[in-house]
Fold this protein.
Amino acid sequence: MNPTLTVLLYSSIAAAAASLGALPLRVRGVMPTAWIGWANALAAGLMLGTAYVIVVAGLNRMVLAGASGAFLGIGFIYWTHLIARTEDLDLNRLDQTGPEYGYQVLLVQSLHSASEGVAIGAAMSLNIALGVFAALAFAVHNIPEATVLCTVLRARRIRLRDAAGLAVLTNVSLVLLSIVTFSLIMAAPSLLPWALGFAMGALVYLVMMEPLPESYRQAGNTSIALVTSVAMGMVVLLKAFLL
Amino acid sequence: MHPVILVFIYGSLTALATGIGALPFLFVRTISPRGVAYANAIASGLMLGACFGLLLEGTESGTWGTIIGANLGVLFILATQRILEHHNVHFGSIGRGGSRRTLLMIVVMTVHSFSEGVAVGTSFGGGMSLAVLITASIAVHNIPEGLAISAVLRPQGVSVAGCAGWSIFSSLPQPLMAVPAYLLVDTFTTFLPYGIGFAAGAMVLMVFLELLPEAYQRARKPRVALLVSISLAGMIVFQRFL
C-alpha cells in the first residue's frame, strides 16, 4: 500500500476509535465520578507509554535536534493554551453549562489530538511498523478519553450519538496532522528528529496537564497511581514483544 | 591493587557523585509551598526520565524478568506506604505526611541503586576500559538522582548537608553490590532484568502516588506540566550524552 494511504488508514482508525468511548455511557447511563478518574488515568498511562515508545525509537537520532524539538513541543502547547486562555481549564466540569465552556473543551481536545497526529506521522516516517503501533496505541487511548469527553458533553444535554460524533470530530486534527507531518518528513528527512522530539515533549506535557491532574480528585491517589502505571507498563510491554 | 578493592573504590565513587545533586540547593534559600510543588514536579520528571532508560535496558536484557520485577516494585511501594502509614513515622522534625514521603523517597532511591551497583560490578568482567566508561556514566547519572532526592528532602527542612548525606546513603548499595556482582558475574547477569524492572516499577509508582498529587495540590497545573516535561526531556538528553 502507498505509505501515505497507510498513514491515512491507521490515523483514521485512531480517530474513529473515539466513538467507542460513548459505549460505557450507553450501557451505564451515568458514569460514577471514580470511573471518570480511572478513564482519565488509563488515557494518561497509555499516552505516557506511547511517548516512551517514541523516545526509545528516536534515541539514536540526533540528540540535539530531538531535544530542541521536545522544547518546541512543550513550548507550543504551553503558549497555545496561554493565548487561548485555557491553561487552567478544568476539562471535567459537569456543572458548567455555559456555551463558552463547551467550545473551550472541544478546542483543547482538538489541540491535544493534533499532537498525537504529529506523533503518528513522525513514527510512521521512522518505520511503518512503529507508526502502526503508535496509531493503534492512540486508538485505544482515545476510547477512555472520549468516555470522559462524552460524559462532559452529556452533562450539557447533548445527545449521546452527537457526543460520540463530536469526540470523533475532535480527532480530525489527528488525521490531518499525521498526514502533514508524514509528508513533510518524507520531503525533508532532516525534520525527523525534530518531529520525534516535538511529539514526545508535547505528549508528556499534555499527560501532565490534561487527564492526570483532575483524576486524583475523582478517584483517589492509590488507584490512579496504579491504573496509570499499569497502563503505561502495558504499552512498554507490548512494544518489547511486538517491535 | 586487588581487583575487588578496585571495584569497591569505583562503586564508592559513583555513590559519592550522588551527593553532588544536593549542591544546587546551596543557592536556594527559602522554599515556599509552591516551591515544594515545583521541586516535586522536577523530581517526577527526572525519575520518569530515568525510568524510560531503565525500561529500555530491562526489556532488552529480558522482557519477562523486567515485567515480573516491575510488578514486584509496584507492590513493594504499596506495601511500604501502608506500613509507614500504620506506624505513624516521624522523620526528624517533619510532619506526618512529609515524613512518609521523605522516607519513601529514600527507600525507593536506595532500592533502585542495587541494580546500578550490579551494573558497576559486572562491567569489570568486560575489561578495564568498559568498566571505567560504565562507572563514569553511572556516576554522572547519579547526580540528577541526588537532585531528585534533595528536591523532596530539602523542602521538608532537611539541611543541604543532610540532603547530600541521604543522597550518598541512597547510593551505598552500589559499592556493596558491585563486589559480589563482580565475583559472581553470571548469577547476577541473570537477575539483572528483575532488578531493573523492580527499580522502574517502584520509581514510576512513587511518582504517580506521592510526588505528582502533592505537586498538583500546591501549584497550578501548567507549571507542574512544564517542569515535569522539561526535566524529563533534560534527563533523557543527559543520559544520552554522557
Remarks:
- Chain B has a mean pLDDT of 87.
